[in-house]
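Run log, item B.
One chain of 195 residues. Sequence copied directly from the ordering sheet:
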Amino acid sequence: MEDLNLAIRPDFSLEDFLNARQQLTNDVVDDDQAARILGTLWDIQNTKDAVEELAEQQHCWQDKEEAACTEECKKNKTKYTPVPDVEVPSGPVNIPTPYATCKLKKGKYCELYFFTNAGLVEAESFNTSIDDEALMLLKSDNGQHVWVPASNARDKSAVIKDEDLTWEQFGEASNQHAPQILDSTRSPPVASLIP
């Protein structure tokens, strides 16, 4: 396609445009004026076509640029991950154990012990790389080293039932439990988290 900005206006006074000039000729408009009118109309139409072509080219370039950007985002997902607009916490961040977090996200009941100070300290020391099939080397009572499944190595009796919590522990847990419920997911109703 040729560049419309470089197009040369034809000479409308030539014999090729006689029929067009005769359409415009009357008592007021002579042959020279008709040729100038045709030239002006050609300029107007050429300018309009050039603007439309430029807009079409820009639209084509935008589509290509968006496709390239989309492809780049697909290749480098971590580079283009949106960063949430939140403030940096000024105090300590208390994150419960993965067990408690998972239960909250599923909308299931979770013991308040995991939100007490003792439960949060235990969560800080929890090694997330340990799964139930992993083995740990423990020293038994007689001094022998024994391989034990990681799920058995953790003391499960340390979890205190809700009815056995002291008022102080209950206060600690309630201050931590409510924000965790709101942060986990807002879809399950809060009433479903109560046993």
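Observations after the first pass:
- The chain is about 45% helix and 5% strand.
- The helical segments are 18-24, 31-75, 98-106, 117-125, 150-153, 167-184.
Flagged for discussion on Thursday.
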